[in-house]
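Quick review question:
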């Protein structure tokens, strides 16, 4: 995740820019994880220029995370641990909210190595309909935060000091543009 960084920490998926300082990244990720945010933060950081309704992935996210954790807990080798972002099957092309940029994120466990020891790692593949380069910092921060939440919740569910590490992220975008208005 995050270029050549492979340490599986927030630094691996945090890309600060003028448009997305760390505070904005944290608020957007918390919002999309269905965590509470302050009204003042919402009015300060949310805007159409920062992604608008196309980047609103919050709906049902806590349940979706719980479903992925349950799947990987019961079926560790499953390839069905998927979060689908709701889209309208026949979108109105004049409204952003009908065509979310992120479509799916697939989670899967694998064996890896961390500090010379064999560990279980959580890998993911995200599929984006479109990605504006200037919005990438927000999206990669959310996906990294989502992976971290799944790994933490799965580790807690497994118990016995289990510690799932973050692995690799494959980030696929059908359309890549420099700015959102392209």
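Suggested answer, residue by residue:
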């Amino acid at each position: 995740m995050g270029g050549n960084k492979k340490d599986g920490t927030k630094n691996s998926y945090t890309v600060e820019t003028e448009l997305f300082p760390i505070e904005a990244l944290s608020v957007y990720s918390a919002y999309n994880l269905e965590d509470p945010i302050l009204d003042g933060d919402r009015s300060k950081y949310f805007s159409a220029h920062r992604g608008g309704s196309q980047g609103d992935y919050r709906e049902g996210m806590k349940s979706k995370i719980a479903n992925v954790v349950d799947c990987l807990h019961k079926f560790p080798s499953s390839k069905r641990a998927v979060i689908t972002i709701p889209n309208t099957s026949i979108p109105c092309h004049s409204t952003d909210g009908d065509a979310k940029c992120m479509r799916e994120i697939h989670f899967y466990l694998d064996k890896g190595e961390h500090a010379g020891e064999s560990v279980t790692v959580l890998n993911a593949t995200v599929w984006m309909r479109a990605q504006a380069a200037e919005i990438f910092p927000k999206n990669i921060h959310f996906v990294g935060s989502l992976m971290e939440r799944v790994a933490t919740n799965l580790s807690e569910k497994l118990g016995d000091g289990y510690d799932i590490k973050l692995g690799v992220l494959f980030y696929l975008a059908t359309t890549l543009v420099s700015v959102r208005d392209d």
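Why it works: Residues 136-158 form the longest helix (23 residues). The beta strands are 81-84, 102-114, 117-132, 165-177.
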